[in-house]
Amino acid sequence: MFPGTITEQFSMSKSKVSYLISDGLGPFFKKEIEKQIQTSRYPYTIQFDETGNA
């Protein structure tokens, strides 16, 4: 992921990873989905699988 010795000392807490995904990557994917919907000529459906792991 990183060059050199940075990877030996790199760590992230569970809450920081959660924040990175929801507030960092979430808006990016939302914009990508919106762009694809706007340029599509076909009907669309967005589904979320919220099944928990057993």
Number of strands: 0
Q: Low-confidence parts, pLDDT < 50 over ≥5 residues?
A: none
Radius of gyration: 17 Å
**SS summary, helix count:** 2
DSSP strand content: under 5%
* Average pLDDT taken over every residue: 84
Helical content (DSSP H or I, runs of 4+): 55-70%
Secondary structure category: mainly alpha
Can you describe this structure?
With 54 residues, the chain is mainly alpha-helical. 56% of the residues lie in helices and 0% in strands. It is built from two helices and no strands. It is elongated, with a radius of gyration of 17 Å. The mean pLDDT is 84.
Give the structure's gist in a few sentences:
By secondary structure, this protein is mostly helical. The protein is built from two helices and no strands.
SSE blueprint:
Blueprint: H1 6-9, H2 14-39
Which key terms come to mind for this protein?
54 residues; mainly alpha; 56% helix
